[in-house]
């Protein structure tokens, strides 16, 4: 065993005591009457508010040093405080959106190093839950991102390729205390179906969160309703639920037809603060944080259209201020 492998083995042994067993894998609270708060735009918060350089938009690299781990703890603690104030549970998304093979390789992480850092991410979530015992339920999610660009549906994989690719990260999470798998900014159905199949193979609950363009369609051009229907048809409805993320409410509120059956499959919403298109956001040099109060009110307006909404948070440009206003608006407290 070489020195690097020995270090990884030692670190894994040290973290094993924190991994434990999953708490909610077989009974997700958000499926059983609990509304959970989750975080905002982690990467945009860390880059623009904390002044941290995140190559390839990868926050998992912060787990490799004490300063980075402290930054992550402080980031998540704000959302524990919000959940505590509004007497809600919390969904902790591990900082592993970029911790897959291709993105990891760009940053110098091989397969062993990625498996190690995914385990350590879940260990941090377990420790945060233990440190905030008065907030409950706290559900831990192994977070996945797309193999490619979350905004562009190019270089598409087949269903089998996607399952093999994402199965590596899912297999790691399955051996930790992660309660579910959540795949974010997914922009075409073959990748979504592959992820669902891989999660089922590892007996993990899975959530698919689609990103939408300004016309309310996936970047692949498919409608949201059709994408959900195709995923469910191909997988026997295995996904626990679906989410929308990385789009402003004005981009998709018009494609949520009242009482459409597929709306019942959407349980989570993590919208952008900005009304800009993805192309405009990519070209922007400054953060567009939008209006937290207005965003909260838009969530409240969407509530009647999404009868099973049970996970609320934010995406690009949002931070704890936006999530607090979302919780405030959904609690019926109006504008403040």
Explain this structure:
By secondary structure, this protein is an alpha/beta fold. It has one domain (33-330): Homocysteine-binding-like domain (TIM Barrel, Alpha-Beta Barrel), CATH 3.20.20. Helix content is 43%, strand content 12%. The chain is built from 12 helices and 8 strands. Helix 8 links the parallel strand 5 (206-211) and strand 6. Helix 11 packs across helix 12. The protein is globular and about 45 Å long. 50% of the residues are buried. Residues 1-17 have low confidence and may be disordered.
List keywords for this structure.
43% helix; alpha/beta; single chain; eight-stranded parallel barrel; globular; 12 helices
Lay out the secondary structure.
Layout: H1 3-19, E1 36-37, H2 42-49, H3 66-86, E2 89-93, H4 101-106, H5 111-131, E3 138-144, H6 159-174, E4 180-186, H7 189-201, E5 206-211, H8 224-235, E6 241-245, H9 249-252, E7 266-271, H10 278-283, H11 292-302, E8 311-314, H12 320-330
Parallel strand pairs: 1-2, 1-8, 2-3, 3-4, 4-5, 5-6, 6-7, 7-8
Helix pairs in contact: 1-5, 3-12, 5-6, 6-7, 7-8, 11-12
Compact summary:
The protein is built from twelve helices and eight strands. The protein is α/β, with parallel strands linked by helices.
